[in-house]
Amino acid sequence: MRMNDQAFSYDVAIIGGGLAGLTAAVLLGKAGLKVILLERSDKLGGRARTERRDNTLMKLGPHAIYSKGEAAATFSELGIRYSGGIAGAVGGSFIAGDKLFPIPAQPMKLLRSSLLSLRGKAEIGRILSGLKRIQPIPLMGVSLQDWTLRKFKDESARRMFLSICRLWTYGNDPKWQSAGAVLQQGQLAMSSDTLYIDGGWQTLVDGLIGLGESFGVSYMKGTKAVQVITSKSGETSGVRLGDGHNLQASNILIAAGPDTAARLVPDSQALRRWSEQAIPCTSACLDITLRKLPDPRRTFVLGLDEPLYYSVHSGLAKLSADGTIVLHVMKYHQSRHPEDAKQNEAALERLMDLLQPGWRHVLAARRYLPSMLTTNGMHTTLHAQLGRPTANVPDVRGLFIAGDWVGNKGMLIDASVSSAKAAVRKILGDTIHERQFI
Asked: Left, alpha or beta for 328 (phi > 0: left; psi -120 to 50: alpha)?
C-alpha cells in the first residue's frame, strides 16, 4: 500500500515519542481521533527510557516526580499506576570542599548546624518557612541572582538556597533564571512528596504506550520526520519522512525540542524565534551500579561550593532483582558556559571516592553522560516580557507543540505533560469542536 493512500491519513501526527508525545497520543486517542506517533529512535520514551543491565535497571540520569504536580495528577486520571519511595533530606548531607554537613531538615537541627552563622540560619530559615506565602508572579521578571542577593546577606546561606534551587529545577544559571518561576517550583516541591519510581520512568512510558494502543494509537519507531508539509495558505497537510514518503495528517503536533521544531518547519517565524530564545539546561551525569554500597549511611548529597548532586535511587525504588545498588552522581552545567567533559567526569569520580571509598572494587556497571539534557528551555526573566512558547504555533494553522519548553505551567515532567494537555485541548477545540469529545 502506498503511503498516500487513505490508510495512511490521520487526524493527528505526533512527532516525538517522549513523555509529552506519549501523553498527547493517549489523550487524542481517547477522544476518538486517528493518531500516529513518529519516533526516530527504535525505542519510545525519550529521556524517560530505562535500560536493563543484567538484573538491574539504569535510568538516563536521576528522575523524580512530585506527587502534587501536573504529571502525577494526569497519570492518576488516566489510571496509569506506579509505586515508589519518597525521597527526603533525612540522612542527607551538604558538601563544601571535602567536608560533609548534615542537611538540617528540621528547625532545631538548623539551629545546631555548624555550617551557617546565626544570621545565615535566620535568613535561610525565614525564606524556607515563608516560601509558600511568597507571590511568585510579580517576580517572574526578576533574576534568581538578583533576588537572592537582596534576600541573603550571609553568603553561606545564599549558597545553600541556590543548591536547593538546583535540586528543584535541574538548572544552574541564577543570572538568567526567573526567580518567580524557581520559587513557584519550590512551592510545589515543598508541598509535595518527591517519588523515585519503581522500575524507573520506563514504568510511565510502558503505561502510556499500553493505554495508547488500547485507544488505537499507531506507533512508528525508527521513523525520522524531516519536514512538516504546509500549503501555500499556511496550513499543515502532513509530514515528509526520511525514506521519502509523505504521511497525510490534518494536524501536526511536534513533541520535540525547539531546534528540532524550527528545523521541521523552516517557514515558521514563531518557531525560529522560540528556538533562538530557548536556553537548554544540561548536566554531566555518572550513572553507577554497585554490588554493594561501601558506606550505606551516605545516600544523598548536594554540593554548596560546586553544583553537585549524589543520590542512591535504589534505596527507595525497586531498580534491581538481586540487590544491586543504583546511584547517580551529577554536576549541573552553567548554561552557555563551556564545559570540559573529562574534568567533569574526574570531579564526579572524586566525589564518589569521598562518599563511597572503595567503590571501584564493587563496581558492576557505569555510564558517563557528559552533556545530558535536563530541560529544553529554562524559565528565564525574558519570558516575563516575551512570554513562553504556546501550544499552538500562531503562524501555521494546524501546527502544535509540546514539551518541557512550552507553556507557563510547571517545569520538567510537569511542563511536558501540561503542554501536551494544552495542545490536545487546542486540537480538539479548534478542529473537531463538532464532536462530543471536549
From this structure: beta
Q: Which three cell numbers stand for residue 125?
A: 530559615
Q: Residue 117, exposed/middle/buried by CB under 10 A (0-12, 13-18, 19+)?
A: middle
Centroid of chain to Cα 15: 18
What would the DSSP string read from start to end of 191-250? Answer: HS-EEEETTTTHHHHHHHHHHHHHTT-EEEET--EEEEEE-TTSBEEEEEETTS-EEEEE
Residue with cell 545530558: 372
Cα torsion angle, 285, 288, 294, 296, sign: positive
What lies within 8 Å, CB to CB, of 343 at 6+ separation is none
Cell reading at 147: 533576588
Average pLDDT per consecutive 10 residues, the chain (438 residues; last block may be shorter): 55 98 98 97 96 89 96 98 85 90 73 85 93 97 98 96 97 97 97 96 98 98 96 91 94 98 97 96 97 95 97 96 96 91 98 98 97 96 93 97 97 98 92 43
For 376, other C-beta atoms within 10 Å of its C-beta total 22
pTM higher than 0.90: yes
DSSP string, 75-101: HHHHT----EEEE-STT-EEEETTEEE
Say if residues 50 and 201 touch (Cβ distance below 8 Å): yes
Q: Can you say how many angstroms the Cα of residue 262 is from the centroid of all Cα atoms in its chain? A: 21
Alpha-carbon torsion 412, 417, 418, 419, what sign?
Answer: positive
CA atoms of 133 and 123, how far apart (whole Å):
15
